[in-house]
Amino acid sequence: MNRLSFSIVSLAALGLFCATLTYWVIKLATPLPVPVGAASVQAPVSLSAAAGLFGDDRAQDSRLRLSGILSLGGGRGAAAIISVDNGPSQAIAVGNHVGSDITLSEVRANSVIVDRNGARSEVTLPAPVAGPGAAGGTIYMH
User: Which of 37, 42, 104, 105 could form a disulfide with 115 if both were Cys (CB 3.0 to 4.6 A apart)?
Assistant: First the structure.
């Protein structure tokens, strides 16, 4: 092989190497396109589920139905009107037993905290029924 053909082959090999190198640099440096639908889909964060992982289960207790909250104000006491297992409603003071294994721990503005063998859960008041003649189930005494 003479000197001219060797130079032409070397130049062609160098050109091929540069083209290949340029292709892979561009290919690896370009970020992958993200599908539009996948970018907008995100599961909502559930704080109550996260709290349950660490023993702070404030989920609604299905055995209890909260009908009303009684508050005397000024730290003089509070009670809740609660029915257990669809039984008759009873006024229960803070610290007293609601059922055989449930104690009323805390009364809040729209909910109560009950303690069942060390596990605390929150029972909220149902949403008021709107309309004429609708009876409200909450009694506030301040």
Answer: 105
Tokens matching residue 94: 């803070």
Distance separating alpha carbons of residues 91 and 137, to the nearest angstrom: 13
pLDDT in tens, 3-30: 889 899 999 999 999 999 999 999 999 9
User: Using CA atoms in the order 45, 48, 54, 60, what is the torsion angle rounded to 10 degrees?
Assistant: -160
Specify the pTM.
0.49
What's the gap between Cα 140 and its chain centre? Answer: 30
Exposed / middle / buried, residue 64 (Cβ in 10 Å: 0-12, 13-18, 19+): buried
Q: Rounded CA gap, 18 and 11, in Å?
A: 11
